């Protein structure tokens, strides 16, 4: 069953990406960033909203933003159980036979953004303040209360916003749940409230207790308290409140972040058990992984260099440091190479360090997600960036062109020469004499039958990614010609990374 679910998730992502790529006329860096944002923002856990988001962006890109679309979908997901047929019919704005009136919980029933906004605005308007308050209160644990003091631990964003009202805490700011989620991953968040307001502007205090025991105290303006102010506030708190706080934090499951050395060991185990990760293709050729069992040093050795001199040492978090050193020492007295990717390189827009150092808690993530995400999104891109430099091309004696598939599910390698009778051979031969042709024309003129909808989409996407062919917009169609990597391919100098 897990295998079927995985195939379903992968299929949804691939279909949505193919649609998006066709809509924007090829994937640029900006398009990749937008699509990645949609994937990351889908709140369903199984990508069921992804296709709707890319379709809406294609349809209304000049009137909305990716952030607005993602926020709207998150509102829909949060309120989906309220979207009953009876609720929609009471709105009296949709035809009884329309898709929305029969399937309001299906996001595909909404043809445009304005329809969904109207329905969600109606949901917000009919929910009374009392209902909202009750829902918010249910999202916290009340740990202590007397005539003056109240201590709560918010477990939901709504609960955080309710008890964090009249503050500037980022964890209680409207339309920004990511801050609450981020703090919750690294420790417990507590709100200490003086109901009498006798302490003036400090009547609401936010306290974040990290899993390693560190405490950060914030006033209503979201300023971190100075030590003397923190001590003064602490001296006013009743013993019962302090004991309740310490007991709750002590009893909580400790989601302590891995140390860099612990994670480095996890990475070594993961790459050591995955032979497919032990060979990488770069512009300077093919390199093979080797780990010294005594020192723990990671080395990459060039397969193209027959003298066995071309190699690079690149051990993530070496000696517990938050960095990756890239080193080559010429033992014959030539030029050395040394560069360090520092802490700023150890995370990206979509992968923060606390994410991959945090224990896995998301049931949709595999146990090896941390290591896999770090290697694919941070380590390998940094390693290839160094090995693509002229220094290593000269060292290995190789200068390749490389390509990366836009989807994780592509299996195409495009070895040269292609086997006779394959799509690769037929399509490239066709384009040599017939540039700027559509895939439909190729089917009609070469294969002899109309192209079925969606047929061989993965092939056309991958051969375009490879640069063997290029795709351009011509009116409302996309046409293909031989691409910038065609010559390198025919010389056997094109590698998939």
SSE inventory with pairings:
Blueprint: H1 2-24, H2 29-41, H3 50-60, H4 66-79, H5 85-91, H6 99-102, H7 113-126, H8 129-137, E1 140-145, E2 149-154, H9 157-163, H10 177-186, E3 187-194, E4 204-210, E5 215-218, H11 227-236, H12 239-251, H13 260-272, E6 279-282, E7 285-291, E8 298-302, E9 311-314, E10 324-328, E11 337-341, H14 353-357, H15 369-387, H16 390-396, E12 401-403, H17 423-433, H18 439-447, H19 457-466, E13 469-474, E14 477-482, H20 486-490, E15 494-496
Parallel strand pairs: 12-15
Antiparallel strand pairs: 1-2, 2-3, 3-4, 4-5, 6-7, 7-8, 8-9, 9-10, 10-11, 13-14
What is the number of beta strands? 15
Inertia-based shape: flat
Helix count from the secondary structure assignment: 20
Return residue spans where pLDDT drops below 50 for at least 5 consecutive residues.
none
Main sheet, how many strands, which sense, barrel?
Answer: 6 strands, antiparallel
Spatial extent as radius of gyration: 28 Å
Strand percentage, roughly? 15-25%
How far apart are the first and last residues' alpha carbons, in Å? Answer: 31 Å
Please state how the strands of the largest beta sheet are arranged side by side: 6-7-8-9-10-11
Task: Estimate nothing, just give the exact number of structural domains.
Answer: 4
Structural class: alpha+beta
